[in-house]
Amino acid sequence: MQVKKINDWFEKFGRFEVKHRWGFLIGLLILTIVCSLGLPRLKLDNGEEDWFDDWETTKVNQDHFESIFGSTDSLLAHIKAKDVFDPEVLQMIDELGDELLNNVPYAGSITSLMELSLPIGTEDGFEVTSPFEDGVPSNPAELAEKKAFIMSRESIVNNLVSDDCTETWLIVNLEQYSENLDQAMAKIAPPAMAIFNDPKYKSDKWEIRPAGLSYTEYEEEKAIVWQCISRIALGFIVMLIFLIVFICSLRGVVVPSIATLGALCTTLGASAWLNIKGNNTMILVTVLLSMALAVGYAVHYINSFKMYFRKTGKRKESIVMGIRDSGWALFFTVITTMAGMLSFLSANIRPMRWVGGITAAAVFAVFVFEIILLPCLYSFGKDQEPDPDFVKNEGSTSSDLRVEAMGKSILNKKWITVVVGVAVIVAVLPGIFKIKVNMNYADMMGERTPYIHRLMEITRSQLGSQYSYEVLVEYQEEDALKNPQVLKNMDEMAARIGTLSSTKVSNGKPRVSSVTKVVKEMNRTLNGDDPAAYVIPDDQDLVSQEMFLYEISGGNDLYNYVSEDFKAGYLHIELSGYDGEEIVRNLEDVKKWCAELFPDASNAGVVGEVVQYAQMNGKLVRGSIRSIGTSLLVILLLLILAFTSFRTGFIAMIPNVAPIAIIGGIMGYASVNLDMITAMIMPMILGIAVDDTIHFTNHIKYHFELTGNYRSAVLNSYREIGKTMIMTTIILCAMFGIFLTSTMTVLVNIGWLSIVGLGSALIADYTLTPVLLFITKPFGKETK
């Protein structure tokens, strides 16, 4: 397939477009308005059901658990003080608990030092008492007695209060809410934040650290939205500044801006008319790629137009020639980039499929805006007298000639270029095999983000834990949970889970809670408060009696862990952090132990959103890797078809594979995990990097058809588009460089990985592409 013939067709299209420029502009305006009217209907969220193909099963299991035990969500306050039994601290805990209970939607009950239910021995057996039922005693001796009693309870120490009395929890147990998490957290978090930030709860005597699923999810969403919007906005401004410096043309600055905004409004508006729901996290890829390609397409066309305009001085003829020289290359880059993004459809994850489809549509829309607006708007204006110096140099500037001279040097040292290129790839390959596929939440967000710093302080404390899951044990028979052997097996399960790497341990005590703690505490109380009696009785009747006595005595902790018919119970496991792969590995052991310890149970397994998201990370990354592989294969096939040559297609792929290999190698050496965000960077960089490769290869082939000489073809291409490739890369690197200022590690990673990828892609295109084409001569024998 001859590039010259295709270029001739684009030349005809250019003449038609210039002739009917008002028709094109009005048609584009009408299309944009019609599509943009759908934007108010646009639905963007981060719904849990979108991430799981088996969401219905997951939802059924979670709903079944909550139908028995209520909501798994709670609002937490980690309280740190010199002594949490200080009267002022206790009074604050009491007031804070009451205010949260009265003002936070779905608040059901409070668990704190002020709201305990503990069994105590009496002459008649025992009774359940709350030490601070009558408030904080003013008598120091009485307060010390109550403190000693609480600290003697094994089920309380290093669970609700630390053994050194410097930390405690205030827990607001939330009732089950009918809405999804996004809707519920919007109701729960704001009033809770207002209370926690009230000046009356600020003191040098204590520190309050809020936490909880709905609370921190709300903080996370606000932080991510602000960081993303502010960085994209700053990046957009930086893009405009560099365009002004490099292009020196108002039209050259305005058109990429309009193209970016117009393409996004058109595609998102059209998707809204079609009732396609989007994802508010993944849209970041669409916005970034649209901005990047709008710049690249504009700079390539404008520089081509300017070259002819300097040489001829004829405006409309230069516009047509600019379309002729850049039209096919631009269109083909659109096709390859769209194909790369559509590879996300193979990920089997709805948000990834959506971002692949919407980004592919946005890429095409950017091209449509650029190919209409640039020629039409540049067609307005006067001709000028050609500059003799530019005529002499075929319209090239001094910087174009310096790039050509650099190209000569590269060709003269072609074998050194090949050896260095191979050496770099060999050097990064071991790093690729060091990459860990994992999502460590704290590492992704980074402690420079204020709420993450607070959560990490909680996690590193004695009692602190932000994440947890449950192990459900359910039988068909009533009173099955009164069977001593079942309870002992639950105790054994708790002991085994306590040895897992992800389980939180406070001063040697694993943070695993279940009904067995209540039973053992009652048994100890009935046996003269003997610590040796803190065990599960062997007699089922005794177990039943102890539970019955606890219930009628006013104890309220029993049904926190078992169902009213005693068919089901669960273990609550607190985690030391959020390491996706580690959690998944640990859960495999938990599932195996469930089958071993509860073979007769009708249902024994793991429940909890943390579990689902840990498993989702692996699925997401595997889907992204599959997408990267698919996009590489599709782009290779397109390159082969476009240049009708296997050799040319494979050669053109090398500069595109090299940046991905380099990014992967650096990630491995720098111990940067491959997570759901970093995995998304690869296809985005590939979509941008392939543009320069296509432009350069296409120009070389075109000039070879004209000159019949590879050296002339390569040097002409350096002179005509070499500077453009540098300009687009500098602008894009500056734009992504703004992300380095973010407080969120994940956005910083997007910044530096993008800069590394784009920089290495430019170097590969400048060196490997022309050298390999010069050495292999894939376009046929030279005629001159």
From TrEMBL:
Keyword DNA-binding on this protein? no
Pfam family example for this protein?
MMPL
Q: Which residues form the Membrane transport protein MMPL domain?
A: 151-378, 560-775
**Regions crossing the membrane:** 20-39, 232-252, 258-276, 283-302, 328-347, 354-380, 415-435, 625-644, 650-672, 725-744, 750-775
Gene3D superfamilies noted in UniProt = Multidrug efflux transporter AcrB transmembrane domain
Query: What are the alphabetically sorted keywords of the record?
Result: Cell membrane, Membrane, Transmembrane, Transmembrane helix
- What is this entry's stated membrane topology? Multi-pass membrane protein
Q: Which InterPro entries match?
A: MMPL_dom (IPR004869), Mycobact_MmpL (IPR050545)
Give me the Gene Ontology terms describing cellular component: plasma membrane
Q: What is its main location?
A: membrane
Q: Where in the cell is it found?
A: Cell membrane
Q: What name does the UniProt record give this protein?
A: Membrane transport protein MMPL domain-containing protein
